[in-house]
Every structure is written in C-alpha cells, then in structure tokens.
Amino acid sequence: MNQQNKKKQIAILGSTGSIGTQALQVIDEHPELYEVYALTANNRVDMLIAQARRFQPEAVVIANEDKYTQLKDALADLPIKVYAGDDALCQIVESEPIDVVLTAMVGYAGLKPTMSAIKARKAIALANKETLVVAGELINKLAQQYRTPILPVDSEHSAVFQCLSGEVGNTIEKVILTASGGPFRTFTYEQLQTVTPQQALKHPNWEMGSKITIDSATMMNKGFEVIEAKWLFGVHPTQIEVVVHPQSVIHSMVQFEDSSIKAQMGLPDMRLPIQYAFSYPDRVYSTFERLDFSKCTNLTFEQPDTKRFRNLALAYEAMYRGGNMPCIVNAANEIVVDAFLKGKVSFLGMSNVIEKTMTETSFVISPTYDDYVATDKEARSIATQLINKQ
Ligand code: NDP
Ligand code: MG
Q: Which residues surround ligand 2, an ion (CB under 5 A)?
C-alpha cells in the first residue's frame, strides 16, 4: 500500500474464471480493505460487463479483440476505460495506483503480463502456476531485481507459505505437498484407458476451470505444483514430496530440521488462499465455513502412483533436466488437454504425446525469454502433429 488506510487497489487478470470470481467475492466481503482497479477476460464478455457494472473498476481489458466493440458499447454510460488485446493486458498492470495484481489467467498466456507486473513493482498474487513452470528462473530473477513480492494463491503453496511464517532462518528439510488424487485415484490402468472428459471434469473436492481440472485428473497439476514449489521456496527438487490425501483438509506441510512438521488445514475453499495473498502479512476475518472435527474424523494418506499417473513422473523429470524442459512439458500439456476435451486423444494417450514432445523439441539449458517463446511455439507444433498422426 502506498499510504496507510488506503484501500488496496487490485487488478485481476482473468476475473471471469474460477479464481477470478472467487477473488471478487473476497473483495466484496471487505469493501473497507480492497477495491477493484482493473478486470480482464478473454471471451466471456457478458460476465465481464456484469462484473464491471457491479465493481466499477477504472479499466477493463478483453484479450480477444473481436469482443472490443461489444464491451465498449455496453459500458458506454460509465467512466470505465475499455481496452482490448494482449498488449493492453501488459500495459494495464503497470497503472500507477495498482497495489496487487492477481494472476488468475490460465496457461502460458499469463507469463507476459506477469512479467510486466513484476517490472512495475506490483505485488503478485500468483494463481497462474504455468508462469513459474515455464520460466521460474527468469521470474525469480526479475522479482529479485525489482524487489517484487510473489504471494502464492495455489492452496498448497499458500499452505507452505503460512507454515513458513515466523520461520525465517530455520532450515527446511522437506516441503510436503498434498494431492487429492483426483477423480481417478482408485481407477486401475485398464479403467483409465476409457475414461471420458465428462468423468475427468468431475473433481471430488474443488470447482475449478476445465484445464486445471483435467490437470488434476492426470496429476500433471501436482507435477506443476512441485516445480512451482521449487521456485517459490528455493528448495532442491529432492526436498519436495507429494502425498495423496483424498480429503483435502491438510493443504500442505513443511518439515523442519528438528523433525517438526507444520501443516495448514481447513475446508477446501480457494477464497482463503486468495484472501491471505491480499491481506498478507495480516489475517482478516472471513465468513468461510469452519472445519468441524466432529464431522472430519478420518484423514488418510497414500503414496502417489506414477505408473498410472505418468504425468507426475514427466513433470519431475522436466524439473530435474531443467532449462526449457518444463516449458516444453507445459506447452505439450496445454495442447493435449485441449485435444482430450475435444475427444482427439485418450486420457492415457496424453502422457505419450507429452513424453514424445519432450524428446523431439530443441533443448536449451539456459533459456532467455525469447527462447521460451520459441520453445513454446515449437513444442505446441510438435504435440499437435503427434496428435494428428495418431
Ligand atoms: P478458468 O478457466 O476458470 O479461468 C481462466 C481465466 O483466464 C478466465 O477469466 C479467462 O477468460 C482468462 N483467460 C483464458 N485464456 C486467456 C488468454 N489467452 N488471455 C487472457 N485471458 C485468458 O481458470 P481457473 O480460474 O480455474 O485457473 C486460473 C489459474 O489459476 C490457472 O493457472 C490455474 O492453474 C490456477 N489455479 C486455479 C485453481 C482453482 O481452484 N481454480 C487453484 C489453484 C491454481 P474467459 O472467461 O473470458 O475465457
Ligand atoms: Mg493447488
């Protein structure tokens, strides 16, 4: 915040999505603390219009330029600035009054505007994990250079972040990320061969956008979160462990060198990590449902199975190989998830395409931003060809 008692000015990249709409609920609950400065979307223009009328931001941006006229006309009676296109997303986050940029866009598209926000020294509430998967090293360097805080919104990383509060200087032995295991946790390999997008879109514990819901079903989401944890918390890959915990009550844990383990718990509700990123380092009151131990009597844990969920192993491999390999995996994954949702590739076929794309795309050990852009393009093209060849 620039001044005491000033409301935090928040820009939401991807306000029409699952995280974006929940962030607006948090802001709505705390009008004395937070104000919406900018809202952005890609296609869902009607929802963006409704949000703009309700929250009266300074500006709105629609990434898809074809929707500009519709948006502009619908808000003509209000003093809201209206912009369109990818460049406008990068420019809007630089606006002087903004304190926090919530990156709630999905996929690689979040990388560039996040870089702009870091360079403009805005606190980043980071939901868009793909940014750290693709270019974690570059993002960390930029954040250091511009002294920009990155506050995790992903529930596991918010949990770790909360466990680390008050532990400055203490040695972390292990970061333990919990995973629900997704809708197919108990399925056999044979059963996985025929699962449909409709089945995969039914997550047992969380309501999320379609891309991350499929990533949760394949456990690529957990693989991405391992990479995300490496960059956020500066731990070595060998220090990051995944444990399947189907109840999603423990959101993640940290083990310290004295053997003590701290866990952060609560009912699964993304509004809490969103609110914590907004209020950090303070906590503020919420009306969210409380965990009731008379109802929650059974917390269980099991090991992840990387034979049935190969994407988790592929993400670990990409992390160990480093360079542009996680960028390759991310690009291939975005292509296969889209193809799976359209019925063009099977559930298990997704891992095959990702694995082949990893071997066929040019490897770069110390990528620059331009290398990431080229890698993303090359890997998408290879993955698309592999799907079309099947
Ligand atoms: P959704 O699909 O629900 O929402 C995505 C948002 O991004 C929408 O506002 C969408 O606009 C916008 N968007 C999509 N593509 C583009 C683009 N090319 N350019 C500009 N804007 C775009 O996703 P989620 O809210 O579920 O997830 C958002 C991010 O948060 C992801 O990175 C995900 O991994 C991460 N995350 C999500 C969690 C969750 O519970 N949902 C939990 C932890 C992390 P439009 O609506 O117009 O298409
Ligand atoms: Mg998560």
A: 154-156
Tell me, what CATH number does 132's domain have? 3.40.50.720
How does pLDDT run across 222-257, given as a tens digit for each residue? 999 999 999 999 999 999 999 999 999 999 999 999
**pLDDT tens column, 56-70:** 999 999 999 999 999
What spacing in Å lies between the alpha carbon of 161 and ligand 2's midpoint? Answer: 13
Name all residues whose Cβ lies below 6 A of ligand 1. Answer: 14-20, 41-44, 63, 104-106, 109, 127-130, 154, 206, 208-209, 211-212, 270
Q: How many CA atoms lie within 13 A of 77 on its CB side?
A: 3
91 in any annotated domain: yes
Q: Does a structural domain hold residue 317?
A: no
* Residue 319 to residues 14, 133, 161, 223, 289, Cα–Cα distance (Å): 27, 9, 21, 9, 36
- Do residue 133 and residue 167 come from a single domain? no
Give the chain's radius of gyration (CA, Å): 20
Q: Cα of 387 to ligand 2 centre, how many Å?
A: 28
Does one domain contain both 284 and 328? Answer: no
Mark whether 87 and 234 lie in a shared domain.
no
